[in-house]
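INFO  loader      accepted 1 record
INFO  loader      residues=109
INFO  predictor   begin
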Amino acid sequence: MINLEDFKKVNIVVGKILSVEKVPDTDKLLKLSVDLGEEKLRQIVSGISLYFSDCSVLVGRKCMFVANLETRIIRGIESQGMILAVSTEDGKFSLLEPNNEIPVGARAR
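INFO  predictor   done
INFO  writer      dumping C-alpha cells
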C-alpha cells in the first residue's frame, strides 16, 4: 500500500501518439513519439505490440501516460515515460483513453 501523498507524486497526463514504429528484433516493443503538451515530444517504448496487428492504428490516439518516471534505456532506446493500459489473464487488453474533449497535456487529479 502507498499513501495518498506518494500517489500524488505520479504525474499522469493526456498525450497524443504522433508516430509508432516497431523496435527491430523484438516481438512486443513499440517506439512511440508522444505529444504531452510540452515543448518537446517524448519518446516512449512500450511492450504492447502483440495487441495490435497494425500498430499504425495508434497514431492520433489520445492515451494516458506517466510523465515523471526516470528515463530508462530499453533495447538501446531511451524511454521517457509509460503508456497506461490494462490487460486480463484471458487476453483482453485496453489502453486508458480519455474522451476527445480532454486536451493534450491535461493532468489526472
